[in-house]
Structure formats: structure tokens, C-alpha cells
Amino acid sequence: MSMFAREGNFVVAKFEDGEIIENLKALMKKLNARAAIILNGIGQFEHAVIGYFDGNDYIKKEIEGAAELVSLQGNIGRSQEDYIIHAHVTLGLKNHEIVGGHLIKGNVKVVNEIVLYLLEKVEIKRERKGKLMEMLIA
Questions:
Q1: N or C: which end of the chain has fewer CB within 10 A?
Q2: Of 117, 129, 114, 127, which Cα lies nearest the Cα of 53?
Q3: β-bridge partners, 133
Q4: How far is CA 46 from CA 20, 43, 71, 85, in A?
Q5: d(Cα 90, Cα 71) in Å, to the nearest integer?
Q6: SS (H, E, C) 55-101
Q7: Given pLDDT bands bounded at 50, 70 and 90, which one contains residue 93?
Q8: Backbone dihedral region of 95: left (phi > 0), alpha (psi from -120 to 50 degrees) or beta?
Q9: 54-57, Cβ contacts within 8 angstroms, sequence gap of 24 or more
Q10: Among residues 71, 55, 53, 51, which one has the least CA distance to residue 63?
Q11: Residue 137 and residue 134: Cα distance in Å, rounded?
Q12: Residue 85 pairs with which residues in a beta bridge?
């Protein structure tokens, strides 16, 4: 279940289930938005996967169990007809350690509270360049 409210270009969303990347894509589609900045995200993930880009590839780390979503930021653009979510996260673990990196996957645990800023004139496009989706701004 998800809900959202919009005030001007700001969108406040609440996700209670699902996977965060897919939730953000579905929200963008529902808003009929072209691009957005992810200003803030808090809540909790379960079975999150984060990555560290070493210049050639992502070194992936799966976070077992639940983790607090301490911070989420990034942008949402498009490649062809698909939305591309480029986001980085900071996660708090049960032992109070912090881990972070590129968000690859995160299942909502309890709730995710997200704030977006929708772009009206600026377009963020993504084009494959090797293993990266390079950002193009129009």
C-alpha cells in the first residue's frame, strides 16, 4: 500500500510494502512525471542490496534482515520508456553500525517515507555507457 500528496513540485510519499525501486517507478508513472530529485528518504528496509562502484563494476553487498533507512537521496530520470532510479543510501544496522552505497534493491519493512522534487523543464536522461547508465541533462 502506498499513498502520496503533492504540494507544487514537492511530493511526499509513504510506502508500506513492496520494493523501493519499483515503488518509485510506479509513483513517477502515476504522477506522469519526467524527472525528479529524491530529496529525502527514511524508514526501514529488509534484504537491502547496496553497491560500491570500483570503476568497472558494482561490488554488491546484501544486508541480511532489517536495516534502518537513515538517508536516501538521488535522482530519477529516463532511458527510453523506463524510469532509472539513481540513489544512494545510508543504512543503520541492528548493532548501530552504518553502511552505505548505491541502492540496488530494498524491500520496504514497516514504512518508507520519501520526499521528491519534480522537475518540469530539466530532463534527466540515461544512456548506457559500458556498465554505467550515464546521465545526460536536457
A1: N
A2: 129
A3: 128
A4: 11, 11, 15, 19
A5: 5
A6: CCCEEEEEEEEEEEEEEEEEEEEEECCEEEEEEEEEEECCCCCEEEE
A7: very high
A8: alpha
A9: 56/131, 57/131
A10: 51
A11: 10
A12: 76
pLDDT higher for 133 or 114? 114
CA separation (Å) from 94 to 9, 48, 69, 85?
35, 14, 12, 27
Cell numbers for 53: 562502484
Domain ranges within the chain, ordered by starting residue: 2-137
Residues in a beta bridge with 116: 11, 38
What is the Cα–Cα distance from 72 to 108, expressed in whole angstroms?
A: 13
CATH architecture, domain 2-137:
2-Layer Sandwich (3.30)
> Considering only CA atoms, which of 111, 66, 69, 105 is closest in space to residue 89?
69
Grid cell at residue 114 = 520519501
- Residue 126's pLDDT is 85
Q: How far apart are CA 20 and CA 50, in angstroms?
A: 13
The reported pTM is 0.93
Element (H, E) at 30: helix 20-31
Looking only at the bridges linking them, the beta strands covering 2-7 and 124-129 are unpaired
